[in-house]
Amino acid sequence: RASMVPPSGFIPDSEVKVELESGKIFLHGPTKSGHPLLLIDGSKHFPSKDQLVFKKFVVHLLDKAIASGIKGKEVGDEKSVGLVDLQNVTLKNIDVRGMITAFQFLQSYYPERLLKCYVLNMPPFFVTIWRFLCRFIDKATKDKIVIVTDGEEQRKFEEEIGLDALPEDYGGRAKLTSLQDVLLPKAAPGMLTANSNV
To answer: What digits encode the pLDDT tens for the residues 139-188?
Structure first.
């Protein structure tokens, strides 16, 4: 991670422009528990042609999610909630290499930064892919992932996120906000740089 992040402490939008323009990542919050909500639209993701740019993008989105949750002076334990929507995902969207990279970065450079991750609308064909991916996900991370499959899990998911943070498309009251449209406090990048846990 350190080799990709400039002295400013934050990878600028310009370095991951191609990934941002796909419109697949949204940042909301706070959730009912007070954490940022990072929403990923799987149907808008396609395997990257440039793995370095994709890795920078993973760092960029995780850093921004964490920074958006900073309240005052960072203490190093800010967490985020993830929401991965697989509605309308086809084989063209499947990027096993990218998913493994994302989980490896999350586990290696952002340990304990994930509070919980909800997976919605998982298509039947993705179950086999998910089982394969689980080989690369440690138990601590796996325990935080909830695959929403029935009405009760859906109700609990909505309750835990809260209607104010949940976008309208998911039954909430929030408007979808693209990652690049979220403005961070000026001090946030510096706080991330100063924190050795990131």
So the answer is: 999 999 999 998 889 999 999 999 999 999 998 999 999 999 998 766 55
Residue 162: what are its φ and ψ, rounded to 5°? 95, 140
Residues 141 and 104 sit within 8 Å (Cβ to Cβ): no
Q: Is 85 left (phi over 0), alpha (psi -120 to 50) or beta?
A: beta
| 3-class state of residue 76 by DSSP | coil
| Enclosing domain of residue 93 | 13-192
Contacts for 3-9: CB closer than 8 Å, 24+ residues apart: 4/52, 4/55, 4/56, 4/59, 5/59, 5/63, 5/193, 8/189, 9/189, 9/190, 9/192, 9/193
Note whether residue 126 is domain-resident: yes
Which CATH number covers residue 77? 3.40.525.10
